[in-house]
Amino acid sequence: MPTGASGSTPVDRFFAVPMVLLALTFPVFFFGEDKGRTAGWLLYGAGLALTVCGYVYCALTGKKASVGGASCAVGAVVIGLFAWYSFGGPW
Predict the structure, then answer these.
(1) 4, pLDDT greater than 60
(2) Which residues have C-beta within 8 Å of that of residue 58, sequence separation ≥ 6?
(3) Is 51 exposed, middle or buried, given 0-12, 13-18 or 19+ CB atoms closer than 10 A?
(4) Dist. CA 90–CA 15, nearest whole Å
(5) What are the CA-CA distances from residue 28 to residues 31, 54, 73 (Å)?
(6) What distances in angstroms separate CA 90 from CA 18, 27, 31, 42, 54, one per listed residue?
(7) 44: which residues sit within 8 A by CB, 6+ positions away?
(8) For residue 7, what pLDDT is reported?
(9) pLDDT tens column, 9-58
(10) How far apart are CA 19 and CA 15, in angstroms?
């Protein structure tokens, strides 16, 4: 599998996109209007959906999710739990 200059695979680079969306969740919650509930949960949902899509792609093509996929999944769970505990559900 070809790797980039940093040694990352294309799958790892794909998982960077949902990780950025997940990382933006908390600043939006803290600084957004209506305590960021609407935009924060939309960002979280988009990051979670892209994470799931990445895992489905890996399962269908037989590629490994590697470190990028694992960190994205762990980040999604941790951020989701903290957001739910700190700000309540999306409704």
Answers:
(1) no
(2) 11, 64, 65, 69
(3) buried
(4) 24
(5) 5, 24, 20
(6) 19, 16, 16, 9, 24
(7) 21, 22, 25, 76, 79, 80, 83
(8) 64
(9) 788 888 889 999 888 888 888 887 766 677 888 889 999 999 999 999 99
(10) 6
